[in-house]
Amino acid sequence: MEQELKTIYEAQLIDSTIIEKEKRLKLTPKLISELDAELQDTKNRVEKEREVIQELEKERRKKEKELDAEKEKIKKLEAKLYEVKTNKEYQAMLKEIETAKVENDKTEEEILILMEKIEELKKDYEEQAKRLKAREIEIEKTKKELKKELESIEGVLEELKKQRDNLLGIVSSDLRSIYKTLIEKRGGVAVVNLKNGVCLGCNMNIPPQLFIEATKNRELILCPSCNRIFYFKEEE
Ligand SMILES: [Zn+2]
Question: Distance between the two ends of the chain, CA-based, in angstroms?
């Protein structure tokens, strides 16, 4: 019996690995699409910032053009100043020049503010773009690893199932059938260890005499609470 218990315990170890790998198999495609979504989000954000900078540049160029035209206009007015015939006309023209100059000062100030803003955004953009590039490389690497793992996992699972079935083929049909029922009904855990008078499958106390018997691994003993098969192993 002791050998049979050890064999069924080993089958359990394999089944636990199988369950873990099957979870991974299901989770990996989700992980990959999450990474893709994260990268796309970051790309969109960086692209948006680039667009904002372009818009501001466009505005700056427009204002500079306007300013140049206004300055040209003032120059022409100033040249004409000496051609006017009446004082009234002269005063009117002076006023026009004055107003245009005040307007230009304002435009110049606006251009300056725009330039500062653009400078600031460009610095931030470059920082973000650098980070994006690094993250992109990181994500590509992770995705490659995940895909590689996915590709091999099917083969590994097949091999593990074969090993498990071999072990289950050795034990008595009664034990095999108890094991299979428990695997199905007890969340994939049919064989459990025990420690300090407690079943490590359900954490319930085991009667002292039963506990002592179970630690000997000499006969098939099921947990009185969860019905799982006991297999005692010191180091766990
Ligand atoms: Zn139990």
Answer: 21
